[in-house]
Design a protein that fits this description.
Blueprint (H helix, E strand, L loop, with lengths): L4 H19 L3 H4 L17 E6 L12 E3 L8 E6 L6 E6 L3 E4 L5 E5 L5 E4 L14 E4 L14 E6 L1 E4 L9 E2 L3 E6 L3
Antiparallel strand pairs: 1-3, 2-10, 3-9, 4-12, 5-6, 5-11, 6-10, 7-8, 7-9
């Protein structure tokens, strides 16, 4: 076995590896450093949206369409929004296709045009005076460029149109208008 050249070659390779490990220092095991970073986040003020005034068409005649402008202080729909000052928000309306009698026996068509909303980034704005930075005559289905004002408030004013049929049943009609508001993260 001592004269076996394979055994001798194996012994030479093992001896060379041991010598190499002894000569080459293991630098990664001899030197270390540690750093500690932080993860931080600031939660913004809670968003709040309130329907402060219903979109009111008042008295309507059978067969005569009636439009309510969003600039009417007394009759336009009003929604107030509060949250983090100057934060960008997204606003989405769920608009009804009709208003109905409370007992559900009849309904009347309601429509919203591409100019039936005003977005006002000022808490004290009114429909007739929406203030600086307001976006008037905008599409309620596609409100863009919306951000809360410097005081953390905004308002949306809404108009529309009801179209009673010629044999529309008499009575008080209503429907829900839902506004969803969220921080947009931009």
């Amino acid at each position: 076995m001592k004269n076996d050249p394979i055994w001798l070659r194996r012994l030479t390779v093992v001896a060379a590896l041991v010598a190499l490990v002894a000569i080459v220092p293991l630098s990664s095991a001899q030197s270390q450093d540690v750093a500690v970073g932080q993860a931080t986040a600031t939660v913004l003020a809670v968003l709040s949206v309130t329907a402060t005034q219903s979109l009111d068409f008042g008295n309507v005649y059978q067969g005569v369409a009636k439009t309510q402008d969003e600039t009417s202080d007394a009759n336009s729909g009003k929604f107030a929004i509060t949250g983090q000052a100057s934060a960008n928000i997204s606003c989405f309306f769920q608009l009804p296709e009709y208003v109905a009698l409370a007992n559900g026996s009849d309904r009347m068509v309601i429509t919203f045009s591409t100019t039936d909303a005003t977005f006002a980034p000022a808490a004290g704005a009114t429909p007739s005076a929406p203030g600086v930075g307001a976006t008037a005559n905008t599409n309620p289905r596609n409100l863009t460029g919306t951000a809360l004002g410097a005081a953390g408030g905004a308002q949306i004013f809404l108009g529309g149109k009801v179209i009673p049929s010629v044999n529309q049943a008499a009575g008080a009609y209503s429907a829900d208008i839902v506004l969803t508001v969220a921080y947009s993260g931009t």
